[in-house]
Specification:
Blueprint: H1 2-18, H2 22-33, H3 39-46, H4 52-92, H5 111-125, E1 129-130, E2 136-138, H6 139-142, H7 154-157, E3 169-171, H8 178-185, E4 190-199, E5 211-221, H9 226-241, E6 247-251, E7 257-266, E8 283-292, H10 294-299, E9 308-315, H11 316-324, H12 331-334, H13 337-340
Parallel strand pairs: 1-4
Antiparallel strand pairs: 2-3, 4-5, 5-9, 6-7, 7-8, 8-9
The chain binds 3,4-dihydroxyphenylalanine.
3,4-dihydroxyphenylalanine (DAH) binds next to strand 7, strand 8 and strand 9.
InterPro entries: aa-tRNA-synth_II (IPR006195), aa-tRNA-synth_II/BPL/LPL (IPR045864), Phe-tRNA-synth_IIc_asu (IPR004529), Phe-tRNA_ligase_II_N (IPR004188), Phe_tRNA_ligase_alpha1_bac (IPR022911), Phenylalanyl-tRNA_Synthase (IPR002319), tRNA-bd_arm (IPR010978)
Cofactor: Mg(2+)
Catalytic activity: tRNA(Phe) + L-phenylalanine + ATP = L-phenylalanyl-tRNA(Phe) + AMP + diphosphate + H(+)
Amino acid sequence: MEDVISQIKEKFKSQLFGAQNLKELEVVEQIYFSRKSGKITELMQGLKDVPDEQKKAKGQLINELKDEMLQQFEMKRSDLKKKEYKETVEAERIDVTQPNLPAHKSGHLHPITIVQNQLEDLFTSMGFQIEDGPELESEYYNFTALNIPESHPARDMQDTFYIKNHPGWVMRTHTSSMQVRTMQDNKPPMKVIMPGRCYRNEATDARHEHTFFQLEGFVIDEKISLANMKGILELVAKNLYGPDTRVRLRPKFYPFVEPGVNGEVACFLCKSKGCRVCKHTGWLEIFGAGMIHPNVLEAGAIDSKKYQGFAFGFGLDRLVMLKYGVEDIRHFQGGDIRFLTQF
Ligand code: DAH
């Protein structure tokens, strides 16, 4: 029996030593101290085969063994408990002396979105509604409905991206494509703006980009005149560039308006003295506009004898360039973080 006892002792010691955590220790506890099947219980049960005169001595031996093992077991348990506690505390510890981690940088609005939002606020405050429309547009809405027939040279001036195997559809060249769509969906009187992304097949340079933004708008009602148009667009220019901003309108041909005008503001960079940006004219072109052509009203199912209207289109990229002094339009789509974080 002494042999068995010393064997158990040795095995127990090595298993106890090997236990890395409280879970593993539980396994050791089961093997040796389980009341039902533990090694100690087994030894105790073995006593019944021992001759009576030896029972007491052997029983004592077993009890001594059990006490010794339990003592070692408890020591190990308390060590492991301490270790695990320390590990948890260590994991949760906050080092108050650690220098600040760099703050997580959140994004912000693109400069074009900033100016678009500003204009949307202004127009909605004057009772305009905002319409959104498709960037992939039918040639009908982009050209034909706007009084630009198939053979018209204006189509060449607005070359764009055509869609393979999808004849009759183009990436819209201007937000004017939304004019007739909006007229068909609504009834006069109407005051609407239609901001959005446009495309052209450009040889890109500092002033031309294949992807850009416009803000289109129109007003249709009875007795609308060029004077109403000038009033509204002057207000927009003053909102953008300050209350002293002067606006001038000069005739310009656009197939979808008659008469058509070019809207210019006095160059606020050189105070109209003439500089590189205004090409020494003292004026900066910021929008196209005009009285909506009767053909366009009719395409929009509006009685051109009863109703008139004016339409206008701002190039948002250009407005932003002038407002912030951006010298190259290609920065807007370039995605360079060094450019974008300046706004
Ligand atoms: N769609 C024109 C362009 O992209 C801008 C424009 C001119 C819009 C005159 C209008 C307008 O509504 O009346 O160049």
